[in-house]
Amino acid sequence: MALPNSRQTLIDYCLRNLGAPVLEINVDDDQVSDRIDEALQFYQEYHSDAIVPVYHKYQVTATDILNKWIPVPDAITVVKGIFPLHDKNSSLNFFDARYQMMLNDMYSLGFAGNLANYEMMNEYLSTMNMILNGTPQTRYNRHMNQLYIDIDWSFDIAEGDFVIVDAFRIVDPNTHTDVYNDMFLKKYATALIKRQWATNLIKFENMVLPGGVTLNGQKIYEDAIEDIQKIEVDMQLKYEFPPDFLVG
Question: DSSP of 154-204, one letter per residue?
Fold first, then answer.
């Protein structure tokens, strides 16, 4: 069989992994769909391959200035910050410290090759700019889809300006279909469907079927729970991004 490259082929793969069509998997289509949604949500929340760093460009409107926030697409999960709204380095004049530095130091680089002084001066000017001007602070919650920027909206930004957001975005499985063939996603989706199957069978526990076969939904349920717990631990150890630490 072909590797999963869509939602339906992932479902078919999971059911075959549980024994279909040799065994009848007693799970409703809606239940299977719910478990696939659950597996995708867990995958997108924690797996490092499920998200990608992006620079999201947005043009400010008059409504945004009135609201004092900008809308963010659902696919964006984390906002790290925004780029400076105005490039302080975009224009230099004769009286600017950077102009004088380049006028003197850059000329001497070709003769003395003193890159260390040039780099140190750049770092110093960058630090001064950060202290005196700072970077706009942001507040974001992905369930609200609203990025609040702590600035003076009547002065620091105008209609038509662009905001560049440094963020992480979910890799869309419908566009990048290789997501459905992810090893972790296949295992986790199969385990969730197995748990759902066992939950359905428990209601008919110890029922004797024709041929003397006895259902044992409890054992299947326990196996499914064990599989899920092991897969989630593997996620933390192998696939999840390490936590960020605040260093001051």
Answer: TTT--TT-EEEEEEEEE--TTTSGGGGG-HHHHHHHHHHHHHHHHHHHHTT
What percentage of the chain exceeds 70 in pLDDT?
81
What is the model's pLDDT at position 107? 55
Neighbours of 191 (CB within 10 A): 25
Please give the residue range of the domain that contains residue 136. 51-170
* DSSP per-residue string spanning 26-68: ---HHHHHHHHHHHHHHHHHHBGGGEEEEEEEEE--HHHHHHT
pLDDT of 231 reads 95
Given 113, 146, 170, the domain boundary residue is: 170
Name the pTM for this structure: 0.78
